[in-house]
Specification:
It contains no helices and ten strands. By secondary structure, the protein is mostly beta strands. The protein has a domain of 89 residues: Jelly Rolls, CATH 2.60.120.10. Strand 6 and strand 7 form a beta hairpin. The radius of gyration is 19 Å and the shape is globular. The relative contact order is 0.28.
Length: 128
């Protein structure tokens, strides 16, 4: 099979946020690429203290990843979710930080619990 792509344009970011661009010769893909239709679902969620706020992912048959960013400048949030093995996972997201989850069961609960006061979180779910 002939090469499908003979050059690739690659952009990188340096520590100074400048963009450097490179032209890479002889970059090739030897087979056809098959993609599946994905949907991105962005949300802005006000996360409550106990019992927390539920992120609804039941719209999806499968979830590729979930990104949760804690926008609050002072409070941390705790994320609880079930993975594909039906095991409950827990992770703390510090103020201003984010997490990427890749093993999420869309039919199970995905809950964000604020620490001391309600705070906003940005949610991005990629699934099909």
């Amino acid at each position: 099979m002939a090469d499908l792509l003979t050059f690739a344009l690659i952009a990188t970011h340096t520590n100074t946020e400048e963009t450097e661009t490179y032209l890479v010769k002889n970059f090739s893909i030897r087979s056809a690429i098959t993609t599946t239709p994905d949907e991105l679902l962005p949300q802005l969620l006000e996360c409550e203290t106990t019992p927390g706020s539920v992120i609804d992912a039941t719209h999806f048959a499968s979830v590729n990843y979930v990104i949760i960013r804690n926008i609050d400048s002072a409070n941390f949030v705790t994320v609880e979710w079930d993975n594909a093995a039906a095991t409950t996972q827990t992770q703390v997201i510090a103020a201003g930080k984010f997490i990427v989850l890749s093993d999420v069961d869309p039919s199970a609960s995905l809950t964000v619990v604020a620490d001391t006061a309600a705070c906003l979180c940005e949610i991005l779910i990629d699934g099909s």
